Structure formats: C-alpha cells, structure tokens
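Good morning,

Attaching, inline, the backbone tokens for the sequence recovery test we're adding to the shared suite. The designed sequence is right after.
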C-alpha cells in the first residue's frame, strides 16, 4: 500500500499528553481534573482561567442539556404526539411528544461538542506541562499578552485555522454525521415514522442491496446508469473538447480568436437557461419536432421520442451535455496546448515522426499529465450532475409505475425524489453514503493508476 504510509510528525514536541501524565508534577496531573490549574500555578492566570471557564461551561451544558440529549440518543424518544378533544374549545389539540429528528440532531451535536472538549482538555494538559517544564528549567513562561503576540508569529496557523475549522465542524461535519446516523433509522413516511423513529441497524442497506425487491432493483438500475452516464459525459466532453482545441490551435487555422470567442460565448449564458430551452425545444410539440414535420422528415402526427423513450432519453442527455460542456473543456485544453514547448515538436519532426506519432507521444501524454486532476473532478461532478438531468428530463421516462426512479435518474436525482417527494429520508441517507463511497473509490483508483503511470515514466 504505497498510499498508506506511516505518519511522521514534522514538528516534534516534548510537551505531549503522555509525557504530562507520566512525568508531570502534581499541579499538571491535577489539571486533568481541573483544567487550567497548572497554568495558574505557574503564573499564566488569564490563560488558566480561560481553560477553567471552558470546563465550567461544558459541565453546566452537560448538566442542563447535554446529559439528557445523550440519554435520549439510544431510544430516539418514545412519547408519541396525541390528539385530544378539548371540550371547552370544541377543537382537537395535540399533546407535545418526542421528536426523534431533534433528539438525533441534539445528540450528535452533544457528541461533537464532547469531542471538541476533549481537544481542549488535551491542549490544557499540554500547556500546563509546558509551563511546568519551562519553570523547572528556569526559562521564561509567557504571560497572556505574550501568548497573544505569538498568534501573529509562530502560532499564526492557529489564528488562521481556528475560525474555518469551527465552521467546518458546525456546517459540514455535524450535518454529515447526522446524515450517516439517519441511514441507520426508519425515518420515512412508511408506517408514519416522520415524528418518532427508531434505530434499525443495517436494514436499510439490506433493503437497498436486495435486487429481488423493487427498491433494490431500482438501486442497481440507477447505479448502472449513473456510472455509464459519468463515463460518457466525462470522456465525450474531453475527447470532443480535445478535437476542437487541436483544430483551432493548429497552424493552418485562421481567426483562432474568433472561433474561441464563439465557444466562449455559449458559456456566458447560464447553463440552466440553455438546458430549459433545449428541454422545451425537444418536447413532442417543441420546435425540433415541428420543424421536422414541416420539412416532411417525419409524419404530421409523429414526433421523435427525445424524452419518452428510455434509449432516446439517455442518448439525448449525453449529447446535450456534450454541447454545454465542450466549451469549458476547450478552454482548459487550449491553455495546456499553448504551454507545450515548441522544441519538442521540432525535435520530433527532425527525427521523422508523423502527425499521429507526435500526437500520441507528445501532445496526448502532456495533456493527460496536466488534466488528470481535471478529469477526476469532472467525473465526480458528473456522478452528482443534478442540473443536467433534472432540468432536461427530470429523470423521465418512468416505465415502471411501482418504481421511484425514471430511466435517466442518477443517484443524486433519485435521492432528491426520495427525500423531497417521497419523504424516504432513511433510504436517501443510505444513497448519499453509497454515492460518497463510489466517488472515493473512483478517485482513489484513478489516483493510484495515474501515480503508477508517472512512476513508470509514462509522462
């Protein structure tokens, strides 16, 4: 496993939690229970009081709210909302019951806060041990003002990274863990589990992988089409963009700037506008079918099934994706072509290489070397290409009424329908997890193959 290498600490420090526990003095060891005590003893009063305030705030939070949230997390609630007739008002009122979604959210948030508290505890322990060691060695122990000044010098990374990490924890990690937990519940409209739901373990994954069920067969069908779509949408754009960029950048092409402007102009129009216009034009009574009837190419009562036949619909979305995607690929590859050293081509011609050999030995390897990250990102984006599919075909056509997905639905559009339209939140969470796994595996395999190719001297 060339990727999984042993981690090496680039900035070793003797002030670790292990050393503090083993070798620290009494004040340092007491800091494990009373955060900041070691700092206060060694003169860092404000810093020690801040650590103590963090600990007190966490303890108060756990007593007032956190402990209850953690206690409710295993059951996700048990008191259902009830409808009660109010004789005085002559109306039905509803008693307040448990809301499993809030219990799960607050429970996950409490776990995350506890993890952050552990990080703060470790920082407090290491800080106390560092202050103790400096005091024993007779060295200067920074006061609070000096610690603040270090945030502009050796600890600048802490100052710059703390706010982003806070927002990442609140708006990325917390929702991600919440979604993962949701995949192991029965949170859905089925059997009215929208208010109260329970943990079901791996039942959702089993149902999705069971090809004999309607849900399982739909999943495998959508997964297969998603991979096919991602492959063709990525490499068709890349190949056609490469061809167009080569044609424009060759020496015999005149008015290169004009041709580039023609393609770039299409990028100026918002993509959703272009997709909605194409969707309207390709309808049974749209401009394309009407034009073909007027030209006599199809019967007056006929229309081409752009979005009503499964095969036609899939080919249509791929072709239109090429139309909207080639200009972006053209711009990427034009910059690559213009940076290939001209001496390589001159040397190849002197050695008697023809145009095909020059392309396969110089141009293509150089382009792949530079654009491999772009290909990985494009493939990932096409797996989650919600806009093209949803705005063009809406996932249609639906040939099986019992299915929750159409023939052009990707995993991401199917997930949208399951959650927004059907309210199958648990299954949607499972699909989200599987989509992430698929993208991670694809990126890892591409990275490893590219790295092996580079090491063998392919580029």
């Amino acid at each position: 496993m060339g990727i999984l290498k042993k981690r090496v600490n680039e900035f070793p420090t003797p002030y670790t939690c292990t050393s503090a526990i083993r070798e620290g003095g009494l004040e340092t060891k007491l800091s494990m229970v009373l955060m900041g005590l070691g700092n206060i003893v060694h003169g860092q009063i404000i810093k020690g009081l801040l650590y103590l305030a963090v600990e007190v705030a966490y303890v108060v939070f756990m007593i007032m709210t956190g402990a209850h949230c953690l206690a409710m997390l295993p059951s996700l609630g048990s008191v259902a909302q009830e409808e009660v007739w109010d004789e005085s008002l002559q109306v039905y009122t509803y008693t307040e019951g448990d809301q499993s979604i809030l219990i799960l959210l607050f429970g996950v948030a409490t776990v995350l806060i506890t993890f952050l508290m552990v990080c703060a505890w470790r920082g407090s322990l290491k800080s106390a041990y560092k202050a103790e060691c400096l005091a024993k060695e007779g060295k200067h122990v920074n006061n609070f003002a000096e610690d603040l000044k270090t945030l502009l010098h050796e600890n600048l990374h802490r100052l710059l990274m703390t706010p982003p990490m806070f927002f990442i924890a609140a708006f990325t990690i917390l929702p991600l863990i919440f979604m993962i937990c949701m995949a192991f519940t029965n949170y859905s409209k089925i059997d009215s589990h929208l208010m109260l739901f329970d943990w079901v373990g791996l039942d959702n994954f089993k149902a999705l992988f069971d090809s004999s069920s309607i849900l399982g067969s739909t999943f495998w069908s959508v997964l297969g089409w998603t991979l096919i779509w991602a492959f063709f949408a990525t490499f068709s754009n890349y190949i056609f963009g490469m061809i167009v960029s080569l044609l424009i950048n060759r020496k015999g092409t005149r008015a290169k700037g004009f041709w580039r402007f023609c393609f770039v102009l299409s990028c100026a129009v918002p993509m959703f506008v272009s997709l909605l216009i194409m969707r309207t034009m390709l309808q049974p009574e749209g401009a394309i079918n009407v034009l073909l009837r007027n030209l006599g190419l199809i019967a007056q009562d006929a229309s081409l099934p752009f979005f009503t036949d499964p095969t036609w619909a899939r080919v249509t979305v791929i072709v239109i994706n090429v139309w909207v995607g080639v200009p972006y690929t053209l711009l990427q590859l034009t910059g690559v072509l213009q940076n290939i050293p001209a001496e390589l081509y001159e040397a190849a011609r002197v050695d008697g290489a023809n145009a095909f050999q020059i392309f396969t030995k110089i141009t293509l390897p150089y382009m792949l070397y530079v654009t491999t990250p772009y290909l990985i990102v494009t493939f990932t984006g096409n797996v989650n290409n919600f806009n093209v599919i949803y705005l063009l075909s809406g996932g249609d056509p639906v040939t099986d009424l019992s299915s929750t997905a159409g023939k052009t639905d990707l995993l991401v559009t199917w997930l949208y329908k399951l959650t927004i339209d059907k309210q199958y939140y648990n299954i949607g969470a499972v699909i989200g997890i599987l989509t992430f796994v698929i993208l991670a595996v694809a990126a890892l395999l591409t990275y490893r193959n590219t790295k092996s190719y580079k090491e063998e001297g392919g580029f």
